[in-house]
Design a protein that fits this description.
Belongs to the EamA transporter family. By secondary structure, this protein is mostly helical. It contains 15 helices and no strands.
């Protein structure tokens, strides 16, 4: 994986880590499933009107939209609305990385190297330690819902890999056309018109303005910028190399939750976060094989004369 792509992956990590604070602000105003529908509807309408079709098979677009869009965010938003702490949500959702590697090996027959597997296991061990430390802050149901969101994300990653869009940003934008209708339908059934109407009628309040600001961040940076870069990385590199970078998102998420929401990580959690970083870096970089000294000497340019 080129150095430029690693830097882009780290940029997405920061954008998505801060995204959880924006989701927290959004859910303070809107019901969770309705908020998910709004997130994508804001993008879908101008996309249909102005953005060219990404020239991919419709089944891949539907797979990405239902997996990455509908499934991931429906489960995640409901989980956070029912008590999943912001920092812990950013952590558990990154189970999408090992899910992606596993599903890529099963369905796409992508080879998983021993180095990648070791790095993922190391990162997952750090993630599991953080989850164990924070387990007392969340009931079992929100954790399960967040894991289902991670599994949905992994299926979306596979659809992206198979689609191989020429224009990743157009692909991400058109993906946003898929989630609104199913999410709004679920919202009407699960949350009801009264709750939806209340959230829309109070947009002028302080909470409403904060919620709109959170929604704007989620749409612009979490979806358009972050997902656009991520999709291009998935197109240029194997899923098993790109996906482990998502394990760094909880490091940013936990840090921002500590700074903004006063969710305080313990020393064990800080050490575990460092283990996560080490595992991702180890698994995403190739081992350099040192050339024999005689070969290196043979390839070294020799002076042609004295000046």
């Amino acid at each position: 994986m080129p150095a430029r792509d690693r830097l882009l992956a780290l940029l997405v990590v920061v954008l998505w880590g801060c995204n959880f604070l924006a989701i927290h602000a959004t859910l303070g105003q809107f019901p969770p499933v309705f908020a998910g529908g709004l997130r994508f509807a804001v993008i879908a309408i101008p996309t249909i009107l102005f953005v060219p079709w990404p020239k991919v098979k419709i089944r891949h677009l539907l797979g990405y939209g239902l997996g990455f869009g509908t499934g991931q965010f429906a489960f995640l938003f409901i989980a956070m609305d029912t008590g999943m702490p912001t920092g812990l949500a950013s952590l558990v959702l990154q189970a999408s990385a090992p899910f992606t590697v596993l599903l890529g090996a099963v369905f796409l027959r992508e080879r998983v190297s021993g180095r990648q597997l070791a790095g993922i296991l190391l990162a997952v061990a750090g993630m599991a330690t953080i989850a164990w430390q924070q387990a007392g802050n969340a009931a079992l149901l929100p954790v399960i819902l967040t894991l289902l969101g991670a599994l949905s994300w992994a299926f979306g990653n596979l659809s992206t890999r198979q689609a191989a869009p020429d224009n990743p940003l157009n692909f991400v934008l058109w993906m946003s056309v898929v989630p609104p209708l199913p999410m709004f339908a679920l919202s009407l059934v699960m949350e009801g018109p009264a709750e939806i109407g209340r959230s829309l009628s109070t947009l002028g309040t302080t909470t409403g303005l904060i919620g709109l600001g959170g929604l704007a961040y989620v749409v612009l940076f979490g979806t358009i910028v972050g997902s656009g870069i991520w999709t291009s990385l998935m197109r240029r590199n194997p899923a098993g190399v790109v996906a482990p970078f998502s394990l760094l998102v909880p490091v940013v998420g936990l840090s921002m939750a500590f700074l903004v929401l006063d969710e305080r990580p313990s020393l064990v959690e800080i050490v575990a976060a460092a283990v996560v970083i080490g595992g991702v870096l180890f698994g995403s970089t190739k081992r350099r094989v040192r050339e024999p000294d005689f070969l290196a000497e043979a390839e070294t340019p020799q002076p042609t004369g004295v000046r």
